[in-house]
């Protein structure tokens, strides 16, 4: 094995609470009630625009979705590491692969700027020769 490519959210890190908080901050900015964490978690996995579209519901207009997405991204940028942590055993696995000289990368649909900031904030940047984001 010469290369291992990881997803970020839900694979290396548990980021659900920070994503949920950002979604609910965006909903609150639009005068909507918060959603339960489990509901938001079920919407995660296809990128921020899809997450916001699901969280805002079927009656949201394009303008409302755009406004909610902008709010979500701003809030998430400032709070994405409030509760996000590596899953148990991840750091040890990365250390092991790194020590064996295996090249590693991240490929995620999270925007690249957020992905790189998250990896840096968690001390992951030393493991990955490249971090690719959804944009």
Secondary-structure class:
mainly alpha
Shape: elongated
Cα gyration radius (Å)? 16 Å
Counting DSSP H or I runs of 4 or more residues, the number of helices is 6
The tally of strands reads 5
Strand arrangement in the largest pleated sheet: 1-4-5
Q: Can you tell me the residue ranges where pLDDT is under 50 for at least 5 consecutive residues?
A: none
| β-strand amount | 5-15%
Q: What is the typical, i.e. mean, pLDDT?
A: 95
H-E order: EEHHHHEHEHE
Largest sheet: 3 strands, parallel
What portion of residues is helical?
40-55%
Straight-line distance between termini: 28 Å
Write a compact overview of the structure shown.
This protein is mostly helical.
Account of the 3D structure:
This protein is mainly α and 135 residues long. It has six helices and five strands; from the N terminus they run ββααααβαβαβ. A three-stranded parallel sheet has the order 1-4-5. The protein has a two-stranded antiparallel sheet with strand order 2-3. β4 (103-107), α6 (112-121) and β5 form a beta-alpha-beta unit. α1 (16-29) crosses α4 and α3 crosses α4 (62-79). The longest helix is centred in the middle third of the chain and has 18 residues, at 62-79. The chain is elongated and about 50 Å long. The model has no long low-confidence stretch (mean pLDDT 95).
Present the secondary structure layout.
Layout: E1 3-6, E2 13-14, H1 16-29, H2 37-43, H3 48-56, H4 62-79, E3 85-86, H5 90-99, E4 103-107, H6 112-121, E5 130-132
Helix pairs in contact: 1-4, 3-4
């Amino acid at each position: 094995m010469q290369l291992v490519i990881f997803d970020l959210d839900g694979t290396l890190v548990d980021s659900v609470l920070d994503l949920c908080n950002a979604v609910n901050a965006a909903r609150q900015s639009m005068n909507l009630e918060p959603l339960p964490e489990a509901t938001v978690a079920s919407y995660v996995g296809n990128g921020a625009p899809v997450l916001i579209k699901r969280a805002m519901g079927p009656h949201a207009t394009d303008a409302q979705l755009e406004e909610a997405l902008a709010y979500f991204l701003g809030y998430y940028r400032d709070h994405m590491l409030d509760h996000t942590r590596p899953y148990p055993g991840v750091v040890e696995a990365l250390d092991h692969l790194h020590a064996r000289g295996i090249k590693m990368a991240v490929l995620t649909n999270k925007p690249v700027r957020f992905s790189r900031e998250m990896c840096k904030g968690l001390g992951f940047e030393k493991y990955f020769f490249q971090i690719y984001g959804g944009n």
